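Record format v2
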Amino acid sequence: MDDEHERQWVQSAKGGDRGAFDALIELHGRSVLRYLQHICSSQADAEDLAQETLYQAYRRLSTFQEGTNFRSWLLTIAYHNWVHSKRKRQSTEQTTGALDSMPAPAVDSSLVQSSETYEAIHACLARLPEEQRTVALLRFGDGLSHAEIAKITQADPATVRWRLFRARQTLRRVLASWLPGSKQVK
Amino acid sequence: MMTCNDIRTLLEGSADDVAREPAIAAHIQNCPDCAAYASLLPSENEDFEALIGNAVDEESWQRVCSRVAARLPRESIRKDSHKRLSRRKIPPAPNTPWNRTPWLVGAAALVGVALLGGMAYQNSLKGPVTPTVVNTTPKSTPTPSAAELADAARQPKNTPAPKVAENQPRKPQPLPRAVLNTKLTQFQSKMRAQNILDDVEQLSIALAESKELEAKSTTDDAELHFERLLMLENVDSDAADVELRGSKDEAQELRDIQDALNADAPAEFKTALARAIATFDEAANLGAMLPDEAPAHASAAATDKASLLIANAENHLRDAQYADAMKSYRAFLDTFPKDRRVAQARYTVAFILEKKLGDADGARAVYQTIADTNGQSQLASHALYHMGETYERTGDTTKALATFEKLKTQDAHAAASITDKVAFLDKKIKGVQAPRPGWGAQVQSSALMKPVKKTTRSIMH
């Protein structure tokens, strides 16, 4: 899929072509779901937010600036939806603070060996603070640039770099225990 | 002097950023560890990308797709909406109701035309302006006039309406909405013929729908502003984080962003909310005038109004306008006593009374209601705890102890947190001198008894 095709789809979708919108979602929607699956506390929440994100994208298509990254735009909506839902959840769960203080799930190295890679990666990412997890997901999961991540998370590029540095340290430590042959950096 | 960690943080930047930073090259030349670190980064990035950028579960993705498809309109977006706007020389604005719901224009036109038709018929019953109907071969006319529509409505169904003479007045002027509403009510009261009554019902439904749509458009605006405010909070918390790490410049930069975002949002937000509430009220009232089909519209309007009342209350709370916040919460509790958000709203009301307005008795009454109506939930435990606190604060140690004892029997997890407190109160009643326990710190740190730290959190959904 080249950029020119995608640009044409965006134009058609903005002009009312539902098929073009569906094609864009087919191309980029999974990124939204993947991001939300790793950042939300449950699969159901992730699916709820993913469908809300895609629905909002449809409704707000006219606000998308052509020439910018459509995936990044979708992930921006997803990020804000997640922030919004997190605050709502905190409000309703303010009496169940016990959940917040629960330790992150332990990483079981047998998960990797038993090929349940998704659960293993999810558990690994769950050890990261939310903001670091977001940055790691957007950088390594979707290959977004630092500028795009900074724009999505409304953070300074220096903050993005710092979060990425911290996320890398944690990921490296956790992954080293899984992959004995992985590179060790002092 | 930059440390290794400073350099490694800079290495997280884009290749261009790294290349532009002379300090990195200088440091790496003299630091073998950082040189090794930098050389391994590209392959490590590939490893992370391979692990994290994995495919999503296809079943999950299909579920999302089908749910989105169910929410999207069956028809495609109107392909000519932007063209129609450009013909009218109205710049397409993303947040205008016309732009987002172009078919609202059609609904409004239907309302206007049908009303005028009805009014014309009403006048015709009085006699003075009876349209001249000619029974010759009808000529083609581009737009039916109000009188034509009225005549058509009088005809039995499935009978073609005769055309009026060409010299009849055409192009009726649209009336303001307030006048339309008045005329609608008058018109309904004077309707006699069943076929006209049918038309009125259709007209009323269309009007209710158009009002509901208008209100929803306003709600969308309000939601956008609400998201913006949440973003502001996020920036604020980022700034606090940065300050904690000691980077004042970075914190100031974030606060500048916040100021820029904050320039106009709150006032617009409040206006949009007020307008949405008023319009939903109007739509719900109009719906109540209608038979059969109307309750669905009225019900939809009412549901959205509940959310708006809560949003309004939270907005006032954020601005420390406690009396106004209480007013909105009370309106919500009185109007929607069975809403699922009632318990949380009551809890916030009690919190405002206790902590912000200093009304311990009022707060205690609300906490009591929460404790009585929420069984053995954690919210009920919280309510009991705060009730005990208010008793203790007002010097009623006996009732405070009784309340805490009740909490102990009801919630084992809470019991562990308040054991010392209960013992202290017990000794106090018996006149035994005892040091006040450090219960404050203990309870504050307890996961269960996490206090309401941030009262501005939304309970909208």
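The longest helix of chain A spans residues 70-92.
The CA atoms of residues 163 and 174 of chain A lie 17 Å apart.
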